[in-house]
Amino acid sequence: MSYANTKPVPAYVQIKDYVRNQIETGVWPMGSLIPSEHDLLKQFGVSRMTVNRALRELTDDQILHRVQGAGTFVASQKYQSTLVEIKSISDEIKSRGGQHHSEVLILERTGDAKALEALGLPPGAEAFHSRIVHFENDVPIQLEDRFVNPQLYPHYLEQDFRAITPNEYMTLEAPLQRAEYVITARMPDATARHRLRMDIGDPCLVLHRRTWAHEQIATDVTLWHPSSRYQFSGSF
To answer: In 83-194, where do the E strands start and end?
Structure first.
């Protein structure tokens, strides 16, 4: 007869697993105050040192946020985007196990002079313009304000961007060849703040990007992200 050689799970790990489960199942939503160290040590019958270690490690992992004198809160999740390649935000969200949906605010023709200049189109021409909010698990994480060259994407205004993202459509129609971008920290205007459900005074991470296809400027897009729940990453 053989016996499994298993070690008991340390108490602080059990507490970490419990806290993670409460967050992942939505019992403790983002921003909520979790039980105090005193409440947790009574619940689990362990020392304050054990509870403190569990909460400290979860704080280091940016799962919890501790405020001196106020308590410990569930940290806001920072959604991540890659800068190495241009991917559909829908694919990025799905790769993290999340659910994506979008809300189309504007889908129109425009003769905006700055947009035409950015796209390399002559004065008096028309560009296409869309403004879309992207959600991850019902949390708004990106406001996309995009101007499009109609010579490359003549059917842009006919697309249902609740079912397909602009990036997905453009990749099928005229794949992008190259891009240039700039990232800045900026305060959102009232419209962006409202659409992204941000508090007054919170900044955005803003990505401004131009792309090329068939040796023409394809799009000029500004992507607004709440800095408290979004981050960019990349490697080369």
So the answer is: 100-110, 127-136, 139-148, 178-186
Q: Give, as one character, the DSSP assignment of residue 155.
A: T
Point out the domain boundary residue: 74, 102, 128. 74
User: 57 pLDDT exceeds 70?
Assistant: yes
Range of the structural domain that residue 39 is part of: 11-74
With residues binned 3-state (H G I as helix, E B as strand, rest as coil), the percentages for the chain, rounded to 5, are 30, 35, 40
Q: Residue 202 is part of a domain; what is its CATH number?
A: 3.40.1410.10
Distance from C-alpha of 205 to C-alpha of 231, rounded to nearest angstrom: 8
CA distance 21 to 27: 8
Q: Check residue 97 and report its DSSP letter.
A: T
Identify the CA nearest to 227 among candidates 74, 77, 34, 105.
Answer: 77
Last residue of a domain, one of 50, 74, 98: 74
Residues 85 and 27 in one domain: no
99 and 27 together in one domain: no
Q: CB within 8 A of 72, min separation 6: which ones?
A: 33, 34, 36, 55, 59, 64, 65, 66
Percent above pLDDT 70 for the chain: 90
Q: What is the mean pLDDT of residues 87-96?
A: 84
Number of domains in the chain: 2
pTM for this entry: 0.65
What pLDDT is recorded for position 88? 81
d(C-alpha 205, C-alpha 188), whole Å: 9
